[in-house]
Structure formats: C-alpha cells, structure tokens
Write a structure and sequence with these properties.
Elements: E1 3-5, H1 12-19, E2 24-29, E3 32-37, H2 40-50, E4 59-61, H3 65-71, H4 76-87, E5 92-97, H5 100-103, H6 111-115, E6 121-126, H7 130-143, E7 148-151, H8 168-173, E8 176-179
Helix pairs in contact: 1-7
Amino acid sequence: AKTVKWQGTVQAEGIEKLKGNGGMIVSPTKVGYIIMTSDVKRLERKFAAKKRKRNKPGVVLCGSMEQVKELAQMTPEIEALYQKHWDQDILLGCILPWKEEAKAQLPNDGTKDLMMDKRETSCFVIKFGKPSEQIAHELWSKYHKFSFASSANPSGKWNRGLVTGIGERIEAAADVIIEADDY
C-alpha cells in the first residue's frame, strides 16, 4: 500500500524510497505533513505537484546538530540559538548561506538551482518532528543523502495536520505516504 502508518521508529519504506534516486514521500511533522525528497528528479516532481514558484530558498531537513553545523554558515550566536532549540526540542528553521564545502556536496545535477535562492541560501530546519527527523537523520548518517522538504499541501492551502489534507496532486505524486494524524 502507498499509505503506511508510522510505527514510532524510522519508517523503512520512506528510507527505501529516498536513499535511491527519484523518491518522493509525504511524512508527518510537528506542524503538519511535508513532502520529502533527496534529489533533483523528485524536487522537480515536488514543484510540479505543488504548482510552486522556484524562486524561494529550499528547506534542508537536518537530523542532527552536527549536520546543520556541517552545512550552514553560522555565527556563534546563531549556533547557540540552534543548540538551545535542539536541546529543548523546539522547531527552528533559519535561512542561512551554505558553507562552500557543503555546496560542493550537492549533486551536480541541478539540485543547487532548486534548493538555493540567488544568494545561495536555504532554510536549515531542526526538530521538525520525530517521524521525519528519524528519516532525515538516517539518510544523512548512513547514506550521506540530503533531505529536502516542502509542506505537503497545495500552494496557499494548509493540510490541517491530516493526511487527507495533502490534496490529490500530492497524493498521486508521492511514492509513500506516512500517516500519523495522531502525532
């Protein structure tokens, strides 16, 4: 089945789709459902499913403090802010420039153009919700794959924190939908 119930641990179906090329899943967070992708092929699919403009900075899901420190340029104050939110399990996303060495880790396939704005910034997000955090952490730590995200709802609408609110286009485009309405 395309829709699976979150079981409290890392969702193997989501990892399986995202660790290869071209996977796109819908996963729960603290604030509703998101689309998760890991490469340019599915980033294109995400933009098409959402009918979203391409000029906004992309969202990079970070499953550990080490990952956000490795990818984003931060001042000591910004790093302290991230650490405080990490320690208190509070969602935080800041639009920050990429470190030069981190930009070099992006696949040379057009991903950069869809993940960064003209200033070469993205929104680096932590503590976004256990089901999706588990996937982002495993993708990075085991496979060194990025987790890119967008809200799983038609542009300009909210999914109300219900899997039924993601809309027909997103439902049809997703490879796997992880349901956790009670999360």
